[in-house]
Amino acid sequence: MLTFIGLGLYDERSITVEGREALRTSDRVFAEFYTSRLVGADVVDLEAYHGVDIEVRPREGVEQDPEAILEAAATGDAAFLTAGDTMISTTHTDLRLRAERRGIETRVIHGVTAQSAASSLTGLQNYRFGKAVTLPFPYAHGGDDVPGSVVETIEANRERGLHTVVYLDIKVGTGPTGPDPDHEEYMTADYAADLLADGWDDVLAVAVARAGSPDAVVAADRLSALATREFGDPLHLLVIPGDLHHVEAEALSGLAGAPDDLL
After folding, report:
1. In this model, does residue 256 exceed pLDDT 80?
2. Three-class SS string for 132-149?
3. For residues 263 and 259, what is the distance between their CA atoms, to the nearest angstrom?
4. What pLDDT band is residue 184 in, cutting at 50, 70 and 90?
5. In whole angstroms, what is the distance from residue 258 CA to residue 205 CA?
6. Domain 2-109: assigned CATH number
7. What pLDDT score does 23 carry?
8. Tens of pLDDT along 135-146?
9. CB–CB of 134/149 below 8 Å?
10. Domain segments of the chain: what residues?
11. Label partner for 57 (CA 20 to 30 A): which of 17, 152, 222, 253?
12. CA 8, CA 31: separation in Å to the nearest integer?
């Protein structure tokens, strides 16, 4: 059996009860933290809290050499952990399909995602979101501005009146000059707002910091204004709202401090 378990958004306690029980009864536990990570806990915290040993695999190890995971699942109960919800990344879907093709039973235990938390915290209705995008660090795509694909997606959503979740880049093990095992960098909401303000200076946006933590921050303002603020520790994301239902407008005012003239 191979059980995919989403750990939720913040720390070792963010997992569901079902996920915790499956994790603690597994024979071997694997994890991948490239796609996303818990900022309120590290592997040592997870091991101590759940009483398990965790084998962390790099993303390329999961994609190119998953044999150890598959063998453990073929001969016993193996758990595969990721932050957020475990099936958001195609890497994990590929691993599940490989297991199924080998006749290994699989199951999925979901965790809270950043997108669902963004909807809940901002008061923006989840069915009014369009395609999401990831905003990379400029050095990561060889430019000094916002990639055209990001601009096109935001504009297409805005034309349809839909909200856009903008995930912010995470760089671990790779820096501006190439591979660097000590490099760990998280794009902040103010940095992202500054990049996007070049094209949409006065557009309403919402910064969400540390969703799922006890000190989550939600702030709505013009992109140019958000670019001048600090939002503390990661992880951060931005939401670019589309057309607002009156309840959504009230939520952004009451929950995120949006200026009245932007609503």
Report:
1. yes
2. CEEECCHHHCCCCCCCHH
3. 7
4. confident
5. 9
6. 3.40.1010.10
7. 96
8. 999 988 877 789
9. no
10. 2-109, 114-262
11. 17
12. 13
The predicted structure's pLDDT at residue 177: 75
Residue 191 per-residue DSSP state:
H
pLDDT at residue 173 tops 80: no
User: DSSP H helical segments within 76-172, as ranges?
Assistant: 90-101, 114-122, 148-159
Check if the beta carbon of residue 1 is closer than 8 Å to that of residue 106. Answer: yes
Tokens 């990570």 -> residue: 37
Tokens of 129: 């979101």
Strand partners, 109: 5
Q: Does domain 114-262 have CATH number 3.30.950.10?
A: yes
- The CA–CA distances, whole Å, from 95 to 36, 203, 251 equal 17, 40, 40
Tokens of 234: 């990661």
Give the model's confidence band at 225: pLDDT under 50 very low, under 70 low, under 90 confident, else very high: very high
For residue range 3-25, list pLDDT tens digits in order: 999 999 999 999 999 999 999 99
pTM: 0.89
Amino acid at site 98: R
- Token pair of 150, please? 């990001």
Say if residues 220 and 206 touch (Cβ distance below 8 Å): yes
Q: Which amino acid is at 56?
A: V
Task: Tell me the residue type at 208.
Answer: V
**pLDDT the model gives residue 166:** 97
